[in-house]
Specification:
Blueprint lengths: L1 H35 L1 E2 H4 E3 L5 E10 L13 H12 L14 E10 L8 E8 L10 E8 L5 E8 L1 E2 L2 E4 L4 E4 L4 E10 L12 E6 L4 H15 L4 E5 L2 E5 L8 H9 L2 E2 L6 E5 L4 E4 L4 E2 L2 E4 L4 E6 L2 E3 L11 E3 L2 E6 L6 E4 L5 H10 L4 H13 L3 E2 L1 E4 L1
Parallel strand pairs: 16-26
Antiparallel strand pairs: 1-15, 2-12, 3-4, 3-6, 4-5, 5-11, 6-7, 7-11, 8-11, 9-10, 12-14, 13-14, 16-17, 18-25, 19-24, 20-23, 21-22
């Protein structure tokens, strides 16, 4: 009786162990799939939910002799005269000869759904011949949109990240002292009208257009909603019809769609920056069977001139320089031919090329040659 109970306990324990291992395997597999996938929020945007760029022209005052030179006819001088006249001051042009004022361009980004009274950051950049905006104050500057309407106004103390110091013999400059920033220096005065709640359909734009990714997003949305509400229109745009369950809750629909995860597809691409010798390759770069041999011819010419002079107490002769030239030729005989098999991974490709002792700049030439041979299944983009 005891033996039967023991066998029963062992079988029960074995089943429990198998169940736990199987469950743990499913959890690990799901975690790996989730790690490889990306949220729709990170790879796409919703049409209409965007920033609007603003720009304005203003004056920065209070500079310590680093402002614009107020020459006759200079736009900074004209702007200063016009501003003072609006304030009821009528100065003479002869009295405006200080360098404490600088003309600047003010730029900002109006966030989506920004309301009146919200504050935004602005960037101030010198427009004239000012050398430094340190210590300056931006006067009230209207910020215009693309339609010419004023959407915000800006004013405040500018914060400069760089500086310039020096004298007659040497000058040290760090950063860009002619560009500054004002945190919360702009106040929104006009709102961009966009009624999100009344939409009947949504347009989703992919940041990196791709047919496969667009279709996967549509499939994920349809599986979540249980209807065929989403369909791709082109590689970069999807149309989503708002279902009845979300008729009065468009924000909730966007929130649910943003959190869906899909695995984006991408084109096999190699980015090459020839100036810096930088190479960036994706993990889906594949090559066919190809033989690669890399070698270089190095010629070194060394000049070691020697001095020739007559012996001691010689009555004739003069001291001259005798040229001595050494020429050495290195053909890199140790370089070998390497065969790269079809379907190798990126890591195998890198390891194989590193085995040849190939540097980044030589690798650029090799990749271009392999592409010309038709053995590289990837697009090469040269910056």
């Amino acid at each position: 009786m005891t033996d039967i109970k023991g066998r029963y306990s062992i079988k029960y324990l074995a089943k429990k162990i198998i169940f736990v291992v199987f469950t743990f395997s499913i959890i690990i597999s799901s975690a790996l799939d989730a790690a490889a996938a990306s949220r729709i929020k990170d790879i796409a945007t919703f049409e209409g939910v965007r920033e609007n760029l603003l720009v304005g022209y203003g004056l920065v005052v209070g500079l310590n002799g680093t402002g614009d030179s107020l020459k006759d006819g200079h736009f900074t001088k004209q702007s200063l005269l016009a501003m003072l006249e609006r304030l009821g001051v009528k100065p003479t042009e002869a009295g405006l000869d200080s360098k404490n004022v600088a003309a600047v361009m003010v730029t900002a980004a109006l966030p989506a759904f920004a309301r009146q009274g919200n504050k935004i950051d602005v960037t101030v950049s010198a427009l004239g011949d000012s050398s430094n905006l340190l210590g300056g104050t931006l006067l009230v500057t209207p910020l215009l949109g693309a339609d010419g309407q004023v959407y915000a106004v800006s004013q405040g103390q500018v914060a400069v990240g760089g500086f310039t110091a020096g004298g007659d013999g040497e000058t040290v400059t760090k950063g860009v002292p002619t560009s500054a920033r004002i945190a919360n220096g702009g106040i929104v005065e006009r709102e961009v009208k966009f009624d999100l709640a009344s939409l009947k359909k949504l347009h989703i734009s992919l940041r990196n257009p791709d047919f496969t990714t667009s279709r996967r997003i549509a499939q994920a949305i349809n599986a979540f909603l249980g209807t065929d509400a989403a369909r791709p229109r082109d590689p970069g745009t999807l149309l989503v019809l708002i279902p009845e369950d979300y008729a009065n809750n468009v924000v909730g629909l966007i929130t649910d769609i943003e959190q869906l995860r899909i695995e984006p597809d991408q084109l096999a691409r190699i980015i090459i920056d020839e100036q810096s010798g930088t190479i960036v390759m994706g993990d889906n770069v594949q090559i066919s069977t190809v033989a690669i041999a890399q070698g270089s011819l190095t010629i070194r010419v060394t000049e070691t001139p020697q001095v020739s002079q007559p012996g001691p107490f010689a009555e004739v002769g003069e001291t001259t320089t005798v040229p001595r030239t050494d020429v050495a030729v290195d053909e890199n005989q140790e370089k070998k031919l390497v065969v790269v098999n079809e379907g190798v991974t990126l890591q195998d490709l890198v390891n194989g090329l590193n085995a040849l002792g190939i540097g980044p700049r030589d690798l650029i030439t090799i990749l271009q040659a392999v592409k010309a041979a038709g053995a590289l299944q990837a697009e090469i983009a040269v910056m």
